Amino acid sequence: MEGIILIKTIRNADVVVIGGGSAGCTIAGRLAAAGRQVLLIEAGPDYGSRTSPDWPADLLNARTLPTSHDWGYTGPGSAGQPLALDRCRVIGGCSSHNGTTQNVGWAGDYDQWAAQGCPGWDAASLAPLFESALDRYWARHYLPDEIQPFHQAVLGAASAQGLPLVSDFHLLAGGAGAGCAPINSSLEGVRLNAAFAYLDPVRDSGHLQMLCDTLVERISFKDGIAQAVHIIHQGVEQRIPAKLIVLCAGAYGSPEILLRSGIGPKEHLADLQIPVTLDLPGVGHNLHDQPTANLEYEGTQALAEALTAFEADRVLMEEQTIIKLRSPYAGSAPYDLHVFPWIERDPSLEQGWRCVFPVGLLRPKSRGHLQLTSSDANVAATIDTGFFADSDDIPPILFGIQWTQELIRSPAMAAFIGAPLAIPPQQQTERIEWVRNNHRHYWHPVGTCRMGPSSDPYAVVEYTGKVHGLEGLHVADASVFPEVPRGTTALPSAVVGERIARFLLNGVC
Q: How far, in Å, CA of 252 to CA of 43, rounded?
């Protein structure tokens, strides 16, 4: 009986949005606000609006990063070491578990997207959409007395090394410097996710239906036109008719669903005995993320005492500062590295605090791929991020490590930094091996369904998000990024939702 009620309800939807993350919430919210009947399907739970008491405390706590709702993706690092590839399975997606720092990246990266055959994606066109997304997220700048002692020391040390102190992370023309990016968390340290920003205004509008805790198996087609979404809801397989489908399942989830739907490299689909809907070689390729080398140290007694005093009457955020650093390999760009230090509690250490200094390469040349091992939606794809497959990615990371070690040794940091816990050796060859064996990532996977013109054999979608060669199916999330912008990806993902929602509403498809 439940299945009959479900299908009867869903038949009224004009648009089915698959995935309730940063981009999916944006698309669903914008289309519903414009009067479209929208069904949003999310694999994780929905805990309600911003005022609901049902939200788990860890997902609201912006002080640290929760892992309670992780998808469980893993993949190999450069030396084959296992890496946890965190993705959040809940309404709001990764905006419900990230560090809440929002920055737009550099204008030149988006101008390059446009120059490569994606009109409307240049910086000038996107600037008002970034402003709109920042406004929706209630993004704000830290007040001076909110910056805790460790990060005050970081800013002092960066300034002493000649970097300007900046507050331009929300500006596409921003340059190198150190500062605190805008945040989408409240004065009380509450994380304000994409669902609060975009879905809450339309939850009671009558234009939005939500189907959560629901796994999408595949999309079916007839004569190249999308017909239905096939789901598993409460253990029951069901078919939902759809007029227009917007796939927003992220850099891992979107290519998985396309491949299970028979859209992808025909040789790979044949290996899995999946009938070919459309041979699109680019699905699952062009995967990249921003690799990091993390330097780690014990916190001192002076740090512990300073943090305790600060926390007595203020919210203690673990991560606040970002350094936009230019290496000699940045070309014409103003910066190509992020150093984004944080502190974390560690009861195994004498003073209870660990200090972490990640050096992140923002524009890696290396590329990986994603492939299915089964047509079963419950079996995760194999993911190879391809970190450091291109050796040109090593020199800027080494430059960033050396610069960061000088920052750590500066007088401004001396009182807070204790014994090293994870640092590279001094010899260059050994440093390279250390990076390959110990690197992590910035949690910013992109590119697996990249935008580009039909003349590009590896482009999956055109500039409107419409899948090449098919009707009724769009993709709108970080998977469509041709290249990762030099910044965090949560805000650009919301802007993808803003941009493609406008294309849909204006009939530019």
A: 13
Average confidence (pLDDT) over 469-497: 97
From CA 228, how far away is CA 219, in angstroms rounded? 6
Distance between CA atoms of 68 and 59, rounded to whole angstroms? 8
Give the tokens for residue 446: 């992109």
Strands 278-279 and 263-264: parallel
**Could you tell me the two tokens for 81?**
């070491």
Residue positions in the annotated binding site for FAD? 90, 216, 443-444
Binding residues for substrate: 442
Q: How many Cβ atoms from other residues are within 10 Å of residue 95's Cβ? A: 31
What's the CATH code, domain 2-505? 3.50.50.60
Beta carbons of 393 and 330 less than 8 angstroms apart: no
The span from the CA of 439 to the CA of 74, in Å, is: 14
Q: Where are the alpha helices (DSSP H) in 121-209?
A: 123-136, 149-160, 194
Residues 6+ apart with CB under 8 A from 173: 107
CB atoms within 10 A of CB 426: 7
Q: Residue 198 has what DSSP assignment?
A: I
- Residue 64, SS3 per DSSP: coil
Amino acid in position 278 = L
pTM (2 d.p.): 0.96
Query: Over pLDDT 70: what percentage of the chain?
Result: 98
Helix axes 107-115, 123-136, angle to 10 degrees: 130
CA 426/CA 29 separation, integer angstroms? 52
Percent residues over pLDDT 90 in the chain: 95
- Domain positions in the chain are 2-505
Element (H, E) at 266: helix 266-271
Residue with tokens 């079963």, as numbered in its chain: 376
Alpha-helix runs per DSSP H in 11-148? 22-33, 57-60, 107-115, 123-136
Q: Report the candidate in 422, 345, 302, 346 with the shortest Cα–Cα distance to residue 64.
A: 345
Q: Is residue 4 very low, low, confident or very high in pLDDT (cuts 50, 70, 90)?
A: very low
CB 402 within 8 A of CB 239: no
Q: Enumerate the known binding-site residues.
A: 90, 216, 442-444
Contacts 24+ apart (CB under 8 A), 34-38: 34/505, 35/207, 36/207, 36/505, 37/12, 37/13, 37/207, 37/209, 38/13, 38/14, 38/207, 38/208, 38/209
